[in-house]
Specification:
CATH topology of one domain: Rna Polymerase Sigma Factor, Chain: A
Helix content: 55-70%
CATH architecture of one domain: Orthogonal Bundle
Shape: elongated
Number of helices: 4
CATH class of one domain: Mainly Alpha
Distance between the termini: 46 Å
CATH superfamily of one domain: RNA polymerase sigma factor, region 2, helix turn helix motif
Strand content: under 5%
Order of helices and strands: HHHH
Mean pLDDT: 78
Structural class: mainly alpha
Low-confidence stretches: 1-14, 115-121
Largest sheet: none
Amino acid sequence: MAPPNQGKGSREGPGVPAVWTASPSRDDERLVAAILVGSRAHFELFYDACFPRVYQYALRRLGAPGPAEAVTRNVLFAVFRELPRWPGRTSLLAWVFELAREAIDRRLRSPRRAVSDDGRSCAGGA
């Protein structure tokens, strides 16, 4: 199967939808299908396209690079685990951000958030 958007000049790279909207697209469906049959290349394209977006969101919400990077990495690998259950009612990116929001909210509620990822105490509990 050829990657979706192959040769369409997507800034995100071949195989990743150039523009993600709130509604699912055929590109989302093809990308998910390729990842589910084991295409590491498609997953890497997806990961590389999503990581900066999710990271910036996490950084804004968490206020520190270390926790933002950890949450982003965990969310994207959770996406990979949960991909067979992607509901398809919304775009893939909207679903990723839903999972990111849930992970960030859990982290903000966690009593561990008073300690940074490297074990140092964070000022103000952030």
